[in-house]
Amino acid sequence: MNLLRAAGTIGSLTMVSRVLGMVRDMLMARFVGAGLASDAFLIAWRLPNLFRALFAEGAFAAVFVPFFNRRMAEGDAREEGAGLKAAVAFAGEVLSVLFPFLVIFTAVMIALAAPVVWAMTGGFPDGGPEKFALATHLTQITFPYLGLISLVSLLGGILNSLGRFWVNAAAPVLLNLCMITALLFFRGESQLETAETQAIAVTVSGLLQLIWLIWSCRRAGVVLRLRLPRLSDDGKKLLWLIGPAAVGQGAVQFNLLISTALAARFLAEGSVSYLYYADRLNQLPLGLLGIGIGTAILPTLSRQLGGGNAAAAAGTQNRALELAFFLALPAAVALVVSAVPLVRGVFEHGAFTARDTLGTASALAAFACGVPAYVLIKVLTPGFYARQDTKTPVRLAVISMLVNLVGNLALIWHFGHTGVAIATAISAWVNTALLYGVLHRRGLLQMDARLKAKGLRSLAAGAVMGLFLWFANPLADPWMTGDLARRVVALGALCGAGALVYGAAALAFGAYSMSELRAQVSRKKAD
Fold first, then answer.
1. Nearest C-alpha neighbor of 47 from the set 92, 96, 110, 100
2. Is it the case that residue 425 has pLDDT exceeding 70?
3. Per-residue pLDDT tens for 467-524?
4. pTM value > 0.70
5. Which residue has the higher pLDDT, 75 or 251?
6. How do the residues of the chain divide into helix, strand and coil, expressed in percent and rounded to 5?
7. How far apart are CA 13 and CA 22, in angstroms?
8. How many Å apart are CA 446 and CA 314, to the nearest integer?
9. 3-state class of 122 per DSSP?
10. 12: how many CB neighbours lie within 10 A of its CB?
11. Element (H, E) at 27
């Protein structure tokens, strides 16, 4: 399997989106800051963002892709070239049920925006009626994005099955471009008006993403048409599996939702914003690595298991775990060790103060302790979904969410918003251990000798990098303020130097060799 190249295609475009998202957040920090308006918008944005993470980047594709691929394989087995037609017919069947459900669901959620916001925030005890009213208003504006992005995920799953990974991976770029455009050219005179502009941009971006996917599907020869809802047995099974898959695939996002709700209820104004800005930096490696590798291996695992080649499937997951850990570890080390200069360089300007930097950096360091776990979850869950087992990841995700809730309640009183981030990282590691443990116990996955050896060597390389960054931080931190060019150069120098040190140490310790990396890129796709 051409794992590195396939994951790189998805990951690089996702990274473009994440970088643009960072530009968006830098502008938001400058014009909105970390206070009443930003807290209200981030609550309104949390639910649409949750659905984007669950459907566009996870659960829907994880369930839909195996069904779609199986329909293609069965159709081609009966008659050459009939597979795509059969698979597209199945997709149209799913659309016929999904579309009316989304219309009704969106309308109901808009009508119930006030109780939904109250359930998440307790009415903002620290902010009063004005903050609650603003969050409710912004939530009503952003809710249509939920339905739009769910349709995008259906079309994206089709294109992923056809090997056109880049199209779906490029769609979130439109979200960030819309929000950046709104901040630069349509922001209001006050922070409240600017927050409203951002909410409008969210929904507009959902419409643009849907248009982009429809156009791309047509270019691929795929046209879906609405018809009266009617489901085959496979269609019923797929819809039955999506809910559990969303819980299993989205444990990290659900944990963040719980954490945000607790921060809104019990912590001081600005805490929701600190957690959000920290999570945005924390999400960079997940976007580049976890989503890319997890998306890339699912079709291959489905084909290998469908062909009865369980040994090849286990090998695919071992190499994916190896690559994910090798790439996620330096990101985690950098975000923990260099949290303060990174946050200062990215966010500290305009309405975002030095105090906000310290609050965000403490949350970032805590979140980042779980970066390898966040990525490994995305790599382990396809081992269940390729076997059409969505119940097991749900049970394990529920356990991790309970761990997160207990951790939040235990730590929030002593460590504030940083305790919330610590609990999130702990729960991610619990989820990772449970996922691997079940696969191992069932005889479906066992760490081979190469994975164990490479993992230890990566840890040694990461330790060398962390030591280097510890001494480099005092030199870099004074350069993280001032004009944009100065901050970009300082950030690039710090991150680039850390990456070079890690790369050199990894080669020295044998964590990866140049020949192995070249083999990952050039390896032919496995059947």
1. 110
2. yes
3. 999 999 999 988 888 777 888 899 889 999 999 999 999 999 988 766 665 555 444 4
4. no
5. 75
6. 85, 0, 15
7. 14
8. 7
9. coil
10. 13
11. helix 3-31
